[in-house]
Design a protein that fits this description.
The protein is α/β, with parallel strands linked by helices. Helices cover 37% and strands 26% of the residues. The strands form 2 sheets. Strands 3-2-1-4-5-9-8 form a 7-stranded mixed beta sheet, sandwiched between helices. Strand 4, helix 5 and strand 5 form a beta-alpha-beta unit.
């Protein structure tokens, strides 16, 4: 996550971890969708870009993956290390900077969950992720749905800009909003093809545990996820 335009998670990491562990939007919406798009990871090397407190990494390790995760926030990395111990390699690193500590073609797959919209130069970031993937590699990216951003921010659906949202825990979220077409354009410019797109639906159990969120997310999307394949330009 980027130090300039991202949420300052240091100081809020434990609040985020507590909420994300079992809430509607993370535990019962984004995580199932992302892991479903990624598929079977047994025996694969997987990079978790913007790993947060290690909730996705824990699932990947449990499914048999060899996981490396990184995050800009030192507090987040500390929580991830506490959660995973020696079962994963966890590093503090800013997504806005080159992945110069990773050799090209290292990973079978990568995930970047609910973080790409914080990055100022998303194409450069995505190009670095493409570089560290093997030719047959896949990248799963999740972000807020463009229509959800439009409903929250108002104005033109086609607006492309950073907007701010105050979270209940006190964090000020500053994130990039743009129409769906622009996401596809950036993926293409970074060297990816969109292999699959998922407009998320609530997971089983949300209706009982979070009925208000279930009702809302059953009729209008909150997040969207993409499975990206490395484009063969040869």
């Amino acid at each position: 996550m980027t130090t300039e335009n991202c949420i300052p998670y240091d100081g809020y990491a434990e609040d985020f971890e507590e909420a994300a562990s079992d809430n509607a939007y993370n535990a019962l919406y984004d995580r199932p969708a992302v892991l479903g798009l990624l598929g079977d990871v047994k025996g694969l090397s997987v990079l978790d870009a913007g790993c947060g407190p290690g909730l996705y990494a824990r699932e990947l390790v449990a499914r048999g993956a060899e996981v490396t995760g990184f995050d800009q926030s030192g507090d987040m990395v500390a929580l991830a290390r506490r959660r995973l111990g020696p079962r994963a390699t966890l590093v503090q690193h800013d997504l806005a900077r080159p992945l110069d500590w990773i050799a090209s073609g290292t990973y079978d797959a990568a995930i970047m969950t609910l973080v790409v919209h914080y990055v100022p130069d998303r194409v450069a970031c995505l190009r670095e992720l493409r570089r560290v993937l093997r030719p047959e590699g896949r990248l799963i990216v999740s972000t807020s749905h463009p229509t959800a951003d439009w409903a929250m921010d108002g104005g033109s659906y086609f607006a492309e800009k950073f907007v701010e949202d105050q979270w209940s825990c006190g964090m000020l979220s500053r994130f990039w909003r743009q129409p769906l077409e622009s996401w596809f354009t950036e993926f293409w410019e970074a060297g990816f093809l969109v292999e699959r797109l998922r407009e998320m639906r609530p997971a089983e159990g949300m209706a009982e545990s979070h009925p208000e969120e279930y009702e809302k997310l059953s009729r209008e999307p909150g997040f969207i996820a993409f499975r990206l394949a490395v484009r063969d330009d040869g």
